[in-house]
Design goal:
heterodimer, A: alpha/beta, Rossmann fold, 10 helices, B: about 280 residues, alpha/beta, six-stranded mixed sheet, 11 strands, about 35% helix
């Protein structure tokens, strides 16, 4: 195993016109680690993931993946290694493509043979029965769709998964299934995760360390244990934690 | 008289006749609402939203609403004609929907929409309606009511839009407010502000609130009583505080325990989350 962190972000800045959405953000994620990013809407947390995934090319600063500095325009090998799962499985799957089409496309793009075996493996890993292979998204439940989205990411055998609110569109019971699946996959495949979420309990459950963001800045980085002990140092992190504990009268 | 519940629902059923058979969205739900915060929780498809809509007579065709009894302050809602029902709706029983983006009229300023809601139910000049609307915007803690009054829905944030909706629903001073996931599209801190507004209204005006949500933590901390729904049926009704009460676990319905068990919990970290086991016998 190399000593390089899986992901190293240094002084990342992103602006949309006059709107400075990510400001001087730096963090690193070790190989095999699961790292959480939390914050309210507009804090820039999803933008960070999109920049890391190469979906947003307008940024400054430096990003290194497994020791390699990344250019604005990523190459094919990068995309094979770093995959993303989006929030809304209703929006992220093509409505007119079957599960098989969805899983075969990344393989065709990357010129990987043996599609039959790879698709079968990805489906069984996410717990989808093979009878679902020729179904369309509308024939699947929300949880099953998110499994397809995860299988689509896994079929290329990446080492890094970027998860953007992967369960916030799902019922709690389905959320539990998807989170369990993600934990199991990480263990089996030694994957590195960045999990973006607004749910502190989910992040504490899934991640070893997390970063709290506000107005595009990293406010505080802490361990999940610090979070569980209700011991963040900054006032904002404390406020977020209190708000997540539900309504208080008086 | 004060003991009379605001709303009584007895054996409510909502059916949809589809080409492939009858879909039973609500299967025999009974409850009474006083001047309190009543939570309805359940997963998607449990019939919680349909319950709210049935009370307001907003079930779309081909849906059918059946009940042994449905009364608002003793008035029978089932035998009431459409017109009388419409008069009740908005004026006495009101509903806040989940997403302000889809529920506000995009081509009218938010102020006009609030004023219209007032004038539909009260004889008032447009000037008085505007004054009332501004006061209402202030009541839901919008900082510059005069400026916000002139804005169109796309110019306001999600949290502000939701406050506008609440202002619109409350300007007629209803006795019963049905809030269908009013805060699930909002950030936690904004969510708490909105809840505070509704909470004050229940306490100060003696309104009855039906709070529909999938968020168990929120319902537990906000409501007085909770109905847990699954597959269109109430699994159990319990005091909200008992949801978290470990000593009351033995009395809980397995579905309620299942829902609680699959939530990640800061205080009780677990290697693997429990998954929900559903028993078809619950729906029998």
């Amino acid at each position: 195993m190399s000593t390089n962190p899986a992901i190293l972000v240094d002084k990342l800045n992103v602006s949309f016109a006059d709107n400075h959405v990510v400001r001087d953000l730096s963090f690193s994620v070790a190989s095999g680690e699961s790292y959480g990013i939390v914050g309210e809407s507009g804090s820039g947390k999803s933008t960070v993931l999109r920049v890391l995934a190469g979906l947003n090319r307008d940024w400054s600063g430096s990003i290194a993946i497994e020791g390699q500095a990344q250019p604005k325009h990523r190459d094919k090998a990068f995309h094979r290694n770093v995959q993303m799962v989006f929030q809304d499985p209703y929006g992220s799957l093509h409505p007119k493509k079957t599960v098989d089409d969805t899983l075969a496309e990344p393989l065709a793009i990357h010129g990987l043979g043996d599609a039959e075996r790879r698709i079968g493996r990805a489906m069984s890993e996410v717990g989808l029965p093979t009878s679902f292979r020729f179904r369309f998204p509308h024939q699947l439940s929300g949880g099953q769709r998110q499994r397809v989205a995860i299988a689509r990411a896994l079929v290329l055998e990446p080492s890094i998964l970027l998860l953007d609110e992967p369960t916030s569109a799902l019922d709690v019971s389905i959320q539990a299934e998807v989170l369990n699946l993600l934990s199991a996959l990480r263990k089996e495949r030694r994957l590195t995760y960045i999990l973006v979420s607004h749910d502190l309990a989910v992040v504490a459950h899934m991640c070893e360390r997390l970063l709290v963001m506000q107005f595009g800045r990293g406010v505080e980085e802490m361990s999940a244990a610090t979070l569980a002990a209700r011991d963040p140092k900054t006032a904002y992190a404390q406020q977020l934690l209190t708000a997540s504990e539900g309504f208080k009268r008086g | 008289m004060s003991d009379q519940p605001l709303l009584e629902v007895d054996n409510l059923r909502v059916n949809f006749h589809t080409p492939t058979g009858i879909v039973r969205a609500v299967r025999g739900l009974s409850f009474a609402l006083g001047r309190e915060r009543l939570g309805i929780v359940g997963e998607s498809g449990s019939g919680k939203s349909m319950t709210g809509r049935a009370i307001l007579d907003l079930i779309p065709h081909p849906g059918e609403v059946l009940a042994d009894g449905m009364r608002y302050r003793g008035q029978d809602l089932l035998t009431m004609d459409k017109r009388a029902r419409r008069k009740l709706r908005g004026r006495h029983i009101s509903m806040v929907m989940q997403d302000p983006k889809f529920s506000l009229n995009p081509v009218q300023t938010v102020g006009q929409q609030i004023a219209e809601a007032y004038r539909v139910h009260h004889k008032a000049s447009s000037r008085e309606a505007k004054e009332r609307s501004l006061a209402m915007l202030e009541a839901v803690q919008i900082r510059e009511p005069a400026r916000v009054y002139e804005l169109y829905p796309h110019e306001v944030s999600g949290g502000m839009g939701q406050r506008v909706m609440i202002a619109m629903m409350l300007i007629a001073e209803p006795d019963v407010l049905i809030a269908d996931e009013p805060t699930s599209a909002l950030d936690v801190t904004v969510q708490l502000q909105i809840l505070k507004i509704m909470d004050d209204l229940v306490t100060s005006r003696g309104m009855g609130l039906i709070f529909i949500s999938h968020d168990l933590h929120l319902v537990q901390s906000f409501c007085d009583r909770v109905i847990v729904m699954y597959g269109g049926k109430a699994m159990e009704t319990l005091p909200a505080a008992e949801l978290a009460d470990e000593s009351a676990r033995a009395r809980r319905h397995p579905y309620t325990l299942g829902l609680l068990g699959c939530l990640p919990d800061l205080d009780h970290p677990k290697a693997e989350l429990a998954t929900l086991k559903r028993d078809p016998a619950w729906l029998a």
